[in-house]
């Protein structure tokens, strides 16, 4: 695994003063943004950076922002957070449509609150459209903060092996049961998979048969389904 800077800044991350907490660059407060494909360790490195430099993590994953589906979305557990505060993680009801505008608004508030405490904001998540809307399209955010982008890069064979093992662990932890809880088997014409706000995924059934029978699909197909699903929602 390697980390590469997507956008260099004159004052690097390693120059942050932990004791003095001087996290400014040319008068702007610094914000670290961790990006990368699914399974590359964005959450872990964000927590490591926050623990090292006195920061807090702002979630930018458009699925993990919702309540529930902790296993399906692979949310970090309280133990994995290691005491590092997280923002925008599991706070939105599944039936609510959380838009780009909503993310920009709430993320800006979270970053501002973190900076007010003289701590380092670290944005991490797999939804690049959310990140772009915040750090590139929002002029007010750009005027206040200097961003350091970190891209998590993992060799494809290593990534595939990790994702495969992770899916097995997720299934053992109750992934199928958690997913089935979001479906209404009594619905004949339409069953909303993860709820329309979570990407408008709708499962159609003209025959009236239960749509969700994921166990019978086999783990191989399930792995492909999860990877494709997260890639689609992250775009």
Which consecutive residue ranges, at least 5 long each, have pLDDT under 50? 1-21, 188-219
From the spread of the alpha carbons, the general shape counts as: globular
Number of strands: 9
Can you give the mean pLDDT? 72
Instruction: Find the CATH topology of the largest domain.
Output: Rossmann fold
- The CATH architecture of the largest domain can be named as 3-Layer(aba) Sandwich
Number of helices: 9
CATH superfamily of the largest domain: P-loop containing nucleotide triphosphate hydrolases
How does the helix and strand content classify structurally? alpha/beta
Give the radius of gyration: 19 Å
As a percent range, the share of strand residues is 15-25%
CATH class assignment of the largest domain:
Alpha Beta
- Helicity level: 25-40%
- How does the major sheet shape up? 7 strands, mixed
């Amino acid at each position: 695994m390697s980390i590469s800077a997507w956008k260099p800044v004159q004052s690097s991350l390693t120059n942050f003063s932990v004791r003095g907490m001087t996290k400014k660059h040319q008068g702007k407060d610094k914000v670290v943004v961790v990006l990368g494909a699914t399974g590359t360790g964005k959450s872990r490195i964000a927590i490591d950076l926050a623990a090292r430099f006195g920061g807090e993590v702002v979630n930018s994953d458009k699925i993990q922002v919702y309540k529930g589906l902790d296993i399906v979305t692979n949310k970090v557990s309280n133990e994995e957070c290691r005491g590092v505060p997280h923002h925008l993680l599991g706070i939105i009801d599944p039936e609510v449509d959380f838009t780009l505008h909503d993310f920009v608004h709430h993320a800006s508030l979270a970053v501002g609150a973190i900076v007010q405490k003289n701590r380092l904001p670290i944005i991490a998540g797999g939804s690049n459209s959310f990140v772009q809307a915040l750090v590139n399209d929002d002029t007010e955010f750009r005027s206040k903060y200097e961003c350091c982008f970190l891209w998590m890069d993992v060799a494809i064979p290593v990534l595939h092996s990790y994702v495969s093992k992770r899916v097995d662990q997720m299934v053992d932890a109750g992934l199928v049961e958690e997913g089935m809880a979001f479906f209404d088997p009594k619905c004949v014409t339409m069953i909303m998979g993860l709820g329309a706000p979570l990407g408008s995924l709708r499962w159609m059934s003209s025959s009236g048969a239960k749509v969700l029978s994921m166990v019978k699909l086999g783990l191989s197909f399930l792995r492909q389904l999860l990877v494709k699903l997260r890639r689609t929602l992250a775009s």
